[in-house]
Amino acid sequence: MEWAVGGESRIEVNLRACTHRRDLPVTPMTCSLLIVDDEPQVLRILADLLSKEFEVITASTAESAKEVFARRDVDLILADQVMPGMSGVQLLEWVRQKSPGTIRLLMTGVARFEDAVEAINCGQVYRFVFKPWRADELQQILRSAARSFLLERSHEQLHEELRRLNLELEERVRKRTQELEDTNHQLQQKNWMLEKLALTDPLTGLPNRRAIEHLVRTELRRRARYPSPLALGLIDVDNFKEVNSRYLLPGGDQVLIGLARSFVSSLRTVDTIGRIGGEEFLLLAPETNLEGAATLGERIRSAVETSEYHYKDAKIHVTVSIGFAVALAGAPADFDTIKHAASAAMDEAKNKGRNRCVIRPMCEPPPHLQVVSS
Predict the structure, then answer these.
(1) What is the average pLDDT across 221-245?
(2) Portion of the chain with pLDDT greater than 90, in percent
(3) Parallel, antiparallel or unpaired: strands 127-130 and 103-108
(4) Are residues 214 and 297 in the same domain?
(5) Ordered strands of the 127-130 beta sheet
(6) Residue 201 · residue 207 · CB < 8 Å
(7) Which of 66, 164, 226, 313 has its CA 20 to 30 A from that of 131?
C-alpha cells in the first residue's frame, strides 16, 4: 500500500526529514527484526532505516515469514495487517504459538476497531504502528520493543542462572549431606564396635567382666522393684593349670573357646554368661529358683564333661565346678552378697571333689531344697 505526496511516497518524505538527525548508537546487544510486508518498497525503506540498530530480515508473505522462523530465532516481528493469504493478525497469532518470546508489532493503514480487538486478543501485539509512520517515532517504538525483549531475556537468563545455581547448591547439599550421613554411619559403626570391644572378651566372644557385672547389677535393681527368684553362678575349670602346662597357652585358649560354646548351647534365652578372668565365668539366670538353678547347673556340668576340645591332634577333656547362689522371691540381695555366696558355693564344689554343682540359697529353705549335684 502506498501514499503519494507530490510524486514521492510519504514514507520517503518522513524518512528524508529525519536524515539530518544524528544517528543513535547501535544497541549493545543487537536484536533481530523480521519485517513482513507485501510491498517491496516498504521493505526496502524500513530495512534502510532500521539496519543500523537491528539485524533486519525481510519477508514479503506470511509463508516466507514462517520459513524464517523454521530456520532461526527471531526477537521482534513487524508485520503488515493487509497481506494476501494470511493477515498480519493471523501471522502474529501463529508467531505467539510458535515463538511466544518474540515481541510482536502490527502495521496497519486502516485503524479499524475490530482489527485492534483481534490483534490484542489473538496476536497479543506489543504495539500498533499506523501507516504512514514517522521515522523517529517508529524507531522509538522498536527501541522500546527491543528493550522489553532484552529485559525479558535477561530475566529469563537470570532465572535460568538462578535455577542452575540452586540445582548446583542442592546437589552440593545432597552430596554433603550424604557424606555426613556416611561419616555418621561409619562413626556409629565404629562406636558400636568400640562398645562391643569394651564389653566383650576378645578370646571367647562372651561378655567380659565389666559387661556381665553390669547386667547382674541391672537385674538386681529390676528385681528390687519386681520381686522374683534369681540365680547367680560362678564356674571354674578344674585343673586348668595342667591344661596350660601340657598344651601351653594356645592349647588352653582353644579349650576356653570350646567351653564358651558349650556354655552358650546349655543356656536358656534369658540367661547370660560372661568370662570374668582366666578360667572363671559368671552366669546370670533371672527368674530361676533352687530347682531351676540345679537343673541349669547340671546341664552345663554334663555338657562340659561329655565334650571334647581339640588342639592340633590332641583331644582334651575337662570338667567344671559350679557354685550357684539363689535369691528367692522376696529375699533381699545385693551384688556383693550374692556374688560372695556363689563364690562360697563354688569353693564347696571344689572341696567336695570338683566336677559338681553346689546350690546355696540366700535364705535357708526347707532341708529338701538344699541341693548338691555331681
Answers:
(1) 95
(2) 65
(3) parallel
(4) yes
(5) 54-59, 31-36, 76-80, 103-108, 127-130
(6) yes
(7) 66
pLDDT greater than 60 at residue 5: no
Q: Check if 170 is active-site.
A: no
- pTM of the entire structure? 0.53
In a domain, 194, yes or no: no
Q: Are residues 129 and 30 in the same domain?
A: yes
What CATH number is attached to the domain comprising 77? 3.40.50.2300
- Annotated catalytic residue: which of 53, 93, 219, 279? 279
pLDDT tens sequence across 351-373: 999 999 999 998 654 444 444 45
End-to-end CA distance of the chain: 127
Asked whether residue 192 is assigned to any structural domain, the reply reads no
Do 216 and 111 lie in one domain? The reply is no
Checking if the pLDDT of 72 tops 70, the result is yes
Residue 247 has pLDDT above 70, yes or no: yes
CA 324 – CA 349 distance, rounded (Å)? 10
The per-residue pLDDT for range 330-357, each reduced to its tens digit, is: 888 999 999 999 999 999 999 999 999 9
**Residues 148 and 222 placed together within one structural domain of the fold:** no
Q: Among 115, 139, 156, give the residue marking a domain's end.
A: 156
The total domain count for the chain is 2
Q: Give the Cα separation of 242 and 176 in Å (integer).
A: 59
Residue 362 to residue 326: CA distance in whole angstroms? 6
**Neighbour-count burial for 107-126, b at 16+ CB within 10 Å, e otherwise:** bbeeeeeebeebbeeebebb
**Residue 144 domain-assigned (yes or no):** yes
How many Å separate Cα 67 from the centre of its chain? 50
Mean pLDDT of 161-170: 92
Q: Which domain holds residue 266?
A: 209-373
Looking at the fold, whether 104 and 233 belong to one and the same domain comes out as no
